[in-house]
Design brief:
Layout lengths: L4 E6 L6 H16 L3 E6 L23 H11 L1 E5 H6 L12 E3 L1 H9 L3 E5 L1
Parallel strand pairs: 1-2, 1-5, 2-3, 3-4
């Protein structure tokens, strides 16, 4: 799958655990498959930008969220939505190492590029 990029926006967190887990699982599997992945945390998933928060998430028969995040970080990029961060008073000093905060303009640029598939969970 050369030159293919997958942009995933996850809006769900502990409020919709299966949808949340699916998004992170797809992102991690795509990275493991050699796909360029950009994972966007929005809405309730924004909390997983904070160290330790993913460890609080549990879903039976699902891969641990901290492991999925580590997999995505190892070969992809994770971005926290600017407005979502601001609403939750999360700053760049608060987030996981390597995670960026960016807004809708950057998201639109990513999804409109050639060879990009976008998914929203």
């Amino acid at each position: 799958m050369p030159n293919k990029k997958l942009v995933i926006k996850v809006t769900a967190g502990a409020d919709a655990p299966e949808r949340c887990s699916q998004a992170f699982t797809v992102a991690a599997v795509a990275v493991a498959s050699g796909v360029e992945v950009s994972l966007w945390l929005t809405g309730e998933s924004s909390w997983f930008a904070l160290p330790g928060r993913a460890a609080e998430f549990t879903l039976p028969h699902a891969a641990p969220l901290p492991d999925l995040i580590a997999s995505v970080q190892a070969g992809g990029r994770i971005t926290l939505c600017t407005q979502c961060a601001t609403r939750r008073e999360i700053t760049e000093q608060d987030v996981l190492e390597g995670l960026r905060i960016a807004g809708a303009q950057v998201f639109v640029q990513e999804i409109m590029a050639d060879g990009v598939q976008a998914l929203v969970y």
